[in-house]
Design brief:
single chain; alpha+beta; D-amino Acid Aminotransferase, Chain A, domain 1; 5 domains; seven-stranded mixed β-sheet; EC 6.5.1.1; DNA damage; DNA ligase (ATP)
């Protein structure tokens, strides 16, 4: 805390921050009847013992800048940093000292209205606490303040140095990173691009906890474990297991223990007074199922203990879930192995606050001389990325990564991560179909999961992965659970075709059983694709089943991607490099994949930059792009195999191979002959003013509304706009194309001075050509968030209709500005697009 300055007022140019009169300048510049910024209140007394807070707000006013604020004496000392902070000590960033702000401002996010001071959008980019090195008041007065930050994005030592002279108009300082363990070259890591979003809507937790720079002793051995944090305590009657969080990418910082992700059943061993219980996650005691394991646990030299582990069957030395399921069904458990990986209590001591490495070391000691069916789950002393690739090549499900210093915490945590090389998860069995619609043998299982609101949501089906014997066993288990009504709370519509009434041989069951399923990917509409049944999960209650994310990427985080020829210029007009393009696609992958996944793709590639030769690639004759999905040629007879981009890896590898534009079909792979949208491409001819393009979009929307069709808007990234109409995929391409042609001809006939239905430059002079040809089979349109191979590299950006009047062009945002714009958007303008079900039946009749 900065002491002794409470009654000074706000600084004027050249004065120390905080001089004179605390918040007078802040108050004088704002009309609190208009702006949502917090009004001035009495300066608070500081009673806390912790370090004072800091906040960095990202502020897009007349131009983008960052507001750096340090708490001191009841106010926030503030600097405007135009280029933002940087971890590179060589990067000295200008910081203009401005008026003090009230402490309440630290949580402010929102829009400052036009004509108000600082008009524009504000988000909280980083927050945390700070501690000065030395006397802060003296440092501020002298113009040299050294301090340490403890934030969600920034950490380590930093310095503010005044560079302006007394009497100058602006009080200018320099902000820069001090050399320490956190410093990184800008060429290696740009924190502004790597982490552009609000920490309010996308909280990260303290970076010092995510990526600690000082590691505990690396001693994952049975020698001298540090158990000083153990607590003498009564034997716990119950311990809930610690659960792992699915990791979208492998951690690159911090100190992690890496184990194989065991493909089996999680069991906690409870030993008390010689009695052994083997408890599932749902609390069932399975000791009677595994007498061999119980016998070996009883033989351990311990009277009281809680151990954590997983039972597996090994086939050729690798975990095999199907073999485990078969062994349990046949009640032959003598070959089942119990891999133990944690020890929570032993000999009257609770070890849950002991660091993980020490608990494991003590567990290893305990298992010395244990029976052949009890094994210590070994850790691998190799980089996680190398282990992940090895696991993938061996067909292993993935890895477990655990913070070396982590406590044992019941429930799901971020200190245990699971990295999946293949998509596997539990799903609730909601129904089934039978072979030939006859009783006795299951043909497919209908699947679901519970969302955050505990509603049962459909997830598709699985029809492979079992033998005839298993199919009959599934029938025997499911038949007693059959019910007349669908158990889904969220109706399965569109390509998720099940309704409340069974129309295609579907038979519903009470949602009580859980299946383990392996699959290729989640589709854009929430269906598991290419699913294979692995077995029933008898250890997990159906209500606990939630949807998990996608496969873990073995790549490093987006801004640490290894890019070949990163400095190659892709667009010389804006000096956009290949690195910028790849980083852009990495940063929008989570948004863009919803528009790409499960759709045939056409790529525009530019090996020599957009000023060189461009070529389309629609098929799989040659790709060289890891991760792209190549589909069966039978999907489109007489054509080469189609491609789709379904994962982060596929998107970034395509960008690495000089793919600039991403164009998609109007149908998904699953229903390739049934379009699920109509697209109207508004392409202005020569002499058309932008205002007329905006007017044309409104007229298209108005006509669609008269036909009882809802539509969504996006920029094209080029000269025009795209109006997109979602459809329930019922009609074929010919019918949908015929509708779009009739629609465009009606526009051109009704308003000929504005619209043209005929292509060719001479036919659209001073008119907007509405391209209906995009709606034919095999035709494609630039996907949302795709860059365009044109000077400036505009981006196709989804926007709301309310934003239409604000747009300046169809290329308002480009590769260099789109991600910053998105960091200020708290709502998805297309959020309702995905759930809108509508058909062309009525609209077609009205047009004819």
């Amino acid at each position: 805390m900065v002491a002794g300055r409470r009654h000074r007022s706000s600084a004027s140019a050249g004065d120390s921050p905080g001089d004179p009169g605390p918040l007078e300048r802040y108050d004088a510049k704002r009309n609190f009847g208009i702006t949502p910024e917090p009004a001035v209140r009495a300066l608070p007394e500081r009673h806390g013992k912790g370090d004072p807070s800091f906040v960095i707000q990202k502020h897009w006013a007349s131009r983008l800048h960052y507001d750096f604020r340090l708490e001191a004496d009841g106010v926030l000392l503030s600097w405007a940093v135009p280029k933002g902070p940087c971890y590179d000590p060589k990067a000295k960033r200008m910081a203009v000292h401005v008026e003090d702000h009230p402490l309440d401002y630290a949580s402010f996010e929102g829009t400052i209205p036009p004509k108000q001071y600082g008009a524009g959008d504000v988000i909280v980019w980083d927050r945390g606490t700070w501690e000065p090195l030395g006397d802060a008041a003296e440092g501020l007065t002298a113009g040299k303040l050294v301090f340490r930050l403890h934030g969600e994005k920034l950490a380590g030592l930093w310095e503010l140095v005044r560079i302006s002279k007394p009497g100058e108009k602006q009080d200018q300082w320099m902000l820069f990173k001090k050399r320490d363990e956190w410093a990184k070259p800008l060429s290696e890591y740009d924190v502004l691009k790597a982490l552009p979003d609000s920490v309010v809507t996308h909280p990260l937790g303290l970076i010092e906890q995510r990526e600690p720079k000082v590691s505990p002793t690396r001693a994952d051995t049975p020698l001298a474990p540090d158990l000083s944090a153990a607590v003498r305590a009564p034997f716990p009657a119950k311990i809930e297991p610690q659960l792992a969080t699915l990791a979208p990418s492998l951690p690159v910082g911090g100190d992690w223990i890496t184990e194989t992700k065991l493909d089996g059943y999680r069991l906690l061993a409870r030993i008390e007074g010689g009695e052994v219980r083997l408890l599932t996650r749902s609390g069932h005691n399975w000791a009677a199922k595994f007498p061999t394991l119980v016998g070996e646990l009883e033989a351990l030299e311990v009277s009281t203990a809680w151990l954590d582990g997983e039972i597996v069957m090994l086939t050729d030395g690798l975990p095999d879930f199907s073999a485990l399921q078969n062994a349990m069904d046949a009640r032959t458990s003598t070959d089942i192995i119990y891999f133990l990986f944690d020890l929570m209590y032993v000999y009257g001591e609770d070890l849950r606050r002991v660091p993980l490495w020490a608990r494991r070391a003590r567990l290893s000691q305990l298992l010395e001389g244990a029976g052949e069916h009890l094994r210590f789950s070994e850790a691998f002393d190799a980089p996680a990325a190398a282990m992940f690739e090895a696991a993938s090549s061996l067909g292993i499900e993935g890895l477990m990564l655990k913070r070396r210093d982590a406590h044992y915490e019941s429930g799901r945590t971020q200190t245990w991560l699971k990295a999946k090389a293949r998509l596997r998860q539990e799903l609730v069995i909601c129904g089934f179909t039978t072979r030939g619609r006859k009783d006795g043998e299951i043909r497919s299982l209908l699947l679901g999961y519970y969302d955050d609101g505990a509603k049962l949501v459909g997830a598709g089906s699985v029809g492979t992965g079992w033998s005839a014997r298993t199919a009959r066993d599934l029938w025997e288990r499911l038949a007693p659970l059959e019910t007349r009504e669908s158990p889904y709370d969220v109706a399965v519509t569109g390509s998720r075709r099940w309704s409340r009434r069974a129309a295609g041989g579907e038979r519903w069951v009470k949602p009580q059983l859980v299946a383990e399923v392996e699959f290729a990917e989640w589709t854009a509409d929430g269906i598991v694709r290419q699913a294979s049944f692995k077995g029933l999960r008898l250890d997990k209650p159906a209500k606990a089943v939630a949807r998990e994310g996608g496969k873990t990427s073995a790549s490093e985080p987006p801004l640490a991607l290894k890019i070949t020829h990163p400095d190659r210029v892709v667009d010389s007009s804006a000096n956009i490099t290949k690195a910028e393009l790849v980083h852009y696609y990495a940063s929008v992958a989570d948004r863009m994949l919803r528009h790409l996944a499960d759709r045939p793709i056409a790529l525009v590639r530019a090996p020599g930059g957009i000023g060189g030769e461009l070529f389309f690639q629609k098929h799989a004759e040659r790709t060289g792009m890891p991760g792209l999905t190549i589909h069966d040629r039978a999907l489109w007879p007489d054509h080469p195999a189609l491609l789709s981009i379904d994962t982060f890896e596929a998107l970034t590898s395509a960008a690495q191979m000089n793919a600039v534009e991403f164009h998609t079909w109007n149908s998904t792979i699953r229903r390739i002959d049934r379009p699920d949208r109509v697209i109207f491409d508004l392409d202005p001819g020569e002499g058309v003013k932008w205002a007329h393009v905006q007017e044309a979009a409104l007229l298209v929307r108005t006509l669609l509304e008269e036909l009882d069709l809802k539509a969504w808007l996006k920029t094209s990234g080029g000269k025009g706009l795209h109006v997109v109409v979602p459809l329930t995929p019922r009609l074929g391409y010919e019918a949908v194309k015929a509708f779009s042609q009739a629609f465009v001809r009606h526009l051109a006939k009704t308003i000929p001075e504005r619209f043209s239905a005929t292509s060719g430059p001479s036919n659209r002079i001073k008119k907007v050509y509405v391209d209906y040809l995009r709606n034919g089979k095999g035709q494609t349109t630039a996907a949302a968030f795709s860059a365009r191979a044109r000077p400036g590299m505009g981006v196709s950006m989804p926007v709301s209709w309310e934003q239409l009047h604000e747009l300046k062009s169809g290329a308002q945002w480009g590769v260099q500005t789109a991600r910053e714009y998105l960091s200020f958007q708290s709502a998805d303008p297309w959020s309702e697009y995905w759930s809108t079900a509508q058909t062309l039946t009525v609209a077609t009749k009205l047009l004819t």
